């Protein structure tokens, strides 16, 4: 491995804390609720590591930076955290932001364990410095496409905003569905109002509409328009990116928040560790923890294990990705090389398609698993 010269990469022996830089969206236009859940998981795990003696006697410390869903701000934060001497980076929810952070981490020789971002091409070239817990978008969205086909949907409209992430999602769906008899109709939300979307759905005889748009807007307005259009009483609305996972969705949409299937990365049953962590996270968040909170916890669990075994040297941390074997909240975490994925990848992240139960919108129903 080519290791850039980095005095901060040397292991400290002065009894000071071992620092992990945390990238989290905590202000708009970032998805703040996702950021809060991610941070809650990170912080809970750090507290438990320190309660158990820290990193070989040294306390673990989280140095948090708000990315606000801004790739340039994230890249600048990586530069700052590298200068501060963090042993590794953790976190980030937004894929395009994580991609900018991963590029800087790779250039600086700073290990980055990405918690939640799914974009397949997290870095342009294969890298030894970056690993990821969340599944690549191609895998998760193919599971979602399987769900659509199994539910009888072959004419699928996608309401999409311009973004590398949304464009990638639409392409994955189109490439997977086309050979299986499915058609993807793209609706450009930079040119359409929510009301105009309804007319397009009728004209194209779509049976499903997928929201490849930002939250809360225009996603909430599109749902309200479609739900109120009598011509579209039978259409299924879906949100593969997971907008309905968080409580704000139910608050903003009420009964309209239900029966909108989305992807989440949880197993049917949490591990024993996961069940204990769920209780602690629920107390910390004062609501049910999302899968993003578990991703945060698992990120620190992996990094703490690596730091205990290999010290706080950056090159040794990055070199240890293929040897990780950590019991997480959602299963045994190990990283491998996956074809077409440029980073070390947890290959068996659990994937579900779920929705909010119309009879009880605070309860989730598992509709499909992959």
Q: What does this protein look like?
A:
This protein is an alpha/beta fold and 370 residues long. 38% of the residues lie in helices and 20% in strands. The protein is built from eleven helices and 16 strands. The protein has helices at 32-51, 71-84, 95-108, 137-150, 164-177, 194-203, 219-227, 247-253, 272-285, 291-310, 314-319; strands at 18-24, 60-66, 88-91, 112-114, 130-132, 155-160, 183-188, 208-212, 236-238, 262-264, 326-328, 331-333, 335-336, 344-346, 352-357, 360-369. The radius of gyration is 21 Å and the shape is globular.
Task: Provide a count of the helices.
Answer: 11
Uncertain segments are 1-13
Strand order, largest beta sheet: 2-1-3-4-5-14-13
Q: How would you describe the shape?
A: globular
Averaged pLDDT = 95
Helix percentage: 25-40%
Biggest β-sheet description: 7 strands, mixed
Portion of residues in beta strands equals: 15-25%
